[in-house]
Design brief:
Helix content is 50%, strand content 16%. The two termini are 26 Å apart. The protein has a 6-stranded mixed beta sheet. The chain has a 4-stranded antiparallel beta sheet with strand order 2-9-1-10. The chain contains 13 helices and 10 strands.
Length: 432
């Protein structure tokens, strides 16, 4: 059968030449579109490193001094600290709340995070590696509320949240630690950082967590958590809801019915949002949502036209083979043999054209690079997954493209091949 398939393709090479060229061009165009859509979808599926599904963020603000509820006697720092702790206690006692933590206004997935850089101090490793930094308040169940997990060999997240920190203690993610110490043993090590003229600061690594993405649409798990002194100004309350709680209903209920009763001293809940909404808004504001939607719509539109075009071309080519298949039938070929022959020719032609098209596109990609997910993934310390690995990237996208071409080819050959196989030999030869 295989020998006959390739013999037929060679004998009909003039008839199939334009279809062959068309398939190569379609493969190159498909590569460009599928690559962008696949990378965007893959980025959306990379774990964030924390459990955002049951998180809600409550932005706390102070009453204006003209507000009738404003209390002049609660403006000193001690009263403000007491009132903030009381407000936090109220939040922890609300129905559906599992944990609550005070966090700074520059939290995970917020804009304006600070980028810093460190060096291991090893003379053999003089590279300074950049990383984004998030501040947290010790003693506030920060890591547990977020759902961040500790890495093997590190203190537990409960221990990291509760311990006392010095001004130069750090908790880092495992991905960032591996860039300095590939053996994974970072606890107890330290960073060095130049400061002013010739001075050097030393930072102690007291804990390591699993990877955390500081923005949901970036492909990096490198992050540094730096302890900070608790301040009520500019702080928010992060809430983890109990399993089974409807986050949307809980947020709406608090915003409409219960927020007024939570006013403590001069503090009140200004806004309540689910963390999923925060992530969605961040992606929308950075153009990720529009870009991903456009890629998916373009891919669907292209696949629809691809199916019609390739299917139509193979349909016409197959219908022209009625007489030839009649001869095969007259020599004893059954219907299934005719269908297998025609579909085999289509698959062989599409596969060869697909491989050539992918190799042609590879020349373009080697010069200009594969799709990397847009400007949001042109930063530092990207996750080493298939998207950033050129060999894996090429073979995965090529496999998807060739599979799509083959599906369209099979659709275009099966139905006309089935119809051709039903033609009786005598009728086919009489028409000729």
């Amino acid at each position: 059968m295989f020998r006959l398939i390739f013999k037929n393709l060679w004998n009909l090479r003039r008839r199939y030449m334009w279809l062959f060229i068309e398939l190569i061009i379609i493969t190159c165009i498909s590569w460009y579109i599928v690559d962008a859509a696949a990378v965007s979808i893959a980025d959306s599926k990379v774990p964030t490193g924390y459990d955002s599904d049951r998180l809600a963020l409550l932005e706390v603000s102070s009453l204006h001094h003209h507000d009738h509820r404003y209390r002049e006697d609660r403006t000193d720092s001690l009263s403000q600290e007491q009132d903030y702790n009381t407000l936090l206690g109220k939040m922890r006692r609300l129905d559906g709340v599992e944990r609550a933590s005070v966090i700074p206004d520059m939290y995970i997935n917020s804009s304006g995070l600070v980028m810093t850089s460190y060096n291991s101090g090893n003379p053999a490793d003089t590279l300074i590696k950049s990383v984004y930094q998030v501040s947290f308040y010790p003693g506030q169940e920060f890591f547990e509320t977020y759902g961040i997990r500790s890495a093997p060999g590190s203190p537990t997240v409960e221990e990291l949240s509760a311990r006392s920190y010095g001004p130069y203690d750090l908790v880092i993610t495992k991905d960032y630690a591996d860039r300095f110490w590939p053996d994974g043993d970072a606890v107890g090590k330290r960073f060095v950082r130049p400061f002013n003229e010739g001075d050097t600061l030393y930072y102690n690594i007291v804990g390591v967590t699993e990877g955390v993405r500081y923005l949901s649409h970036t492909r990096t798990n490198d992050l540094v958590f730096r302890p900070a002194k608790l301040r009520s100004e500019g702080a928010s309350i992060l809430v983890r809801l109990a399993p089974g709680t409807d986050v949307r209903a809980w947020v709406d209920n608090l915003a409409r019915n219960e927020s007024a009763g939570l006013i403590t001293g001069n503090f009140y809940i200004r806004q309540v949002r689910s963390y999923s909404d925060i992530i969605s808004f961040g992606e929308y504001a950075n153009g990720v949502t529009a870009d991903r939607s456009m890629m998916i719509v373009l891919l669907v539109f292209f696949l629809f036209n691809l199916t019609l075009g390739v299917t139509g071309s193979f349909f016409l080519q197959t219908r022209r083979r009625v007489t030839e298949m009649g001869v095969h039938r007259s020599f004893g070929a059954n219907r299934s043999s005719v269908i297998s022959l025609l579909m085999g020719e289509g698959v062989a032609l599409a596969t060869i054209a697909g491989v050539i098209g992918c190799l042609i596109y590879m020349q373009f990609a080697m010069r200009f690079g594969f799709n990397n997910g847009g400007v949001n993934n042109n930063g530092v310390n990207l996750i080493d997954n298939w998207v950033s690995n050129p060999v894996s990237h090429f073979f995965i996208i090529s496999g998807i493209v060739i599979a799509l071409i083959l599906v369209c080819t099979l659709l275009g050959t099966y139905f006309p091949a089935r119809k051709v196989s039903r033609v009786e030999p005598v009728d086919a030869l009489r028409d000729e």
